[in-house]
Amino acid sequence: xxxxxxxxxxxxxxxxxxxxxxxxxxxxxxxxxxxxxxxxxxxxxxxxxxxxxxxxxxxxxxxxxxxxxxxxxxxxxxxxxxxxxxxxxxxxxxxxxxxxxxxxxxxxxxxxxxxxxxxxxxxxxxxxxxxxxxxxxxxxxxxxxxxxxxxxxxxxxxxxxxxxxxxxxxxxxxxxxxxxxxxxxxxxxxxxxxxxxxxxxxxxxxxxxxxxxxxxxxxxxxxxxxxxxxxxxxxxxxxxxxxxxxxxxxxxxxxxxxxxxxxxxxxxxxxxxxxxxxxxxxxxxxxxxxxxxxxxxxxxxxxxxxxxxxxxxxxxxxxxxxxxxxxxxxxxxxxxxxxxxxxxxxxxxxxxxxxxxxxxxxxxxxxxxxxxxxxxxxxxxxxxxxxxxxxxxxxxxxxxxxxxxxxxxxxxxxxxxxxxxxxxxxxxxxxxxxxxxxxxxxxxxxxxxxxxxxxxxxxxxxxxxxxxxxxxxxxxxxxxxxxxxxxxxxxxxxxxxxxxxxxxxxxxxxxxxxxxxxxxxxxxxxxxx
Amino acid sequence: xxxxxxxxxxxxxxxxxxxxxxxxxxxxxxxxxxxxxxxxxxxxxxxxxxxxxxxxxxxxxxxxxxxxxxxxxxxxxxxxxxxxxxxxxxxxxxxxxxxxxxxxxxxxxx
Lengths: 529, 110
Description:
Number of domains of chain B: 1
Low-confidence stretches of chain B: none
Helix content of chain B: under 10%
Radius of gyration of chain A: 30 Å
Mean pLDDT of chain A: 77
CATH class of chain B: Mainly Beta
Largest sheet of chain A: 13 strands, antiparallel
CATH architecture of the domain at 360-528 in chain A: Beta Barrel
Oligomer: heterodimer
Structural class of chain B: mainly beta
Strand order of the largest sheet of chain B: 1-2-10-7-4-5
Structural class of chain A: alpha+beta
Shape of chain B: globular
CATH architecture of chain B: Sandwich
Distance between the termini of chain A: 25 Å
Distance between the termini of chain B: 20 Å
């Protein structure tokens, strides 16, 4: 229940006031009613009256009219709890067993809210070796609630309905955080195969998150984000991306809105249906023009006429209310996807502040504060600059006086250039980066002879030594990287070559070549949805 | 070439001779307006994963719906219109407001 309360709190924080929306407040009806009321003559009133009786031009607003009072907030809240409860996977142990292959389930007090967010699609979980990282954007939860049809998206400027607003989401998208758990520090329970007769069944590994397993936590806030939604660059990027990005939500809207609206204005089984609809339009148009000077009367005439037409529709289509609700949910998902795409393309210059608290194995805990500047230079080239300082959370009592909490300062600069059509191997980005670390205080390694640090051995230490100081020298690093994205895939393959003058523990120059593989989990989750 | 679609007066029904090839285009007013999905008589008029400002199809006999989903670069604040294009002629058909991305046209092939 605590999780539900937390999730509700976040949802409430980004939602609008709570009562069902009136159809005449819905934008396309409202605009046409305003136009009709402001018409000076009957002739001038004809065009807005024609617009009002054209039901198929007001698909979303008409669905709101059909659903009407059914979407009262007590129902929305009730549905929210029901849907959330039914989507939880931690209620039965069986849900985890259903997965084929190894599954890792994050549980425990430290991870409860985050794992709930993962279950609900508001955060992503990744596993790298023994480190499990949960990442979330503050807009993730309300967006997930819209995608799951719990709350609608606010599509009308003055909606009185309980809904998730575009401007709130835009602000929340600027805040993100992550928590990493080091599973090797805790207890992992390897389950037994489900049946002895199934030797190939993968064993289930359960990770129980505990507070002392948190190896790092990061919070990031965009301090300044210069949005650009009007330039030629933005228009070109939008045109290039919109087809693919909106394919799924547009297909869903096409299916649901079409199922609803074709039943309102067409009927293949009844040859006279179209003529009756035409007659209804002509009749209603005349009544609206007669009422045009009084807004309340116009609204009443329209409401009565729409109800009259719905009697005809309901007689042939008794399931029309359910179709209207499905259509409204598809509209919400469509608007959310459209807004997310625009937000993702409109970021131009971004200045962000990031805090990372780390507790690496065998080293003193640190806090890092980083300022990040992301500047697109041209449509294909961007520059990212970082400045950061790291502080020890505490310094052991027995260290020399010149070891202070201020550990190091870092500066990084990266230039990325998209190769575009110059690349014969699909989309590719070439990057060069420089990194400098000024080491103010030496790296402190906590040494415990009973628990050696993985990969590091010490010789010649006094028997009572518990803290080891690494040599205190600045670090230079240069990197060249080529990131390849095979056409039509969400996989990214970075190939990099890095030179460093030394590392914190090794005082010799080092060359390192790396090949990586990154997968865009969002698209994978999108495909599974 | 003259425009072919004829609206039945005071209604939203369009009539056109069966077999006529229609070309419909979007015109931008606020932001860019493109058609992401369009279907007429069981035929998909926009390939998957694309968004276009122009669709073409041949009118079949009887009352059929042209259904469309329109995408807007200015989201719900976007605005445009759908026109019949018969170069050099052109005629206004319907408004395309950002708050109503799904649109339906009743076209009767006579």
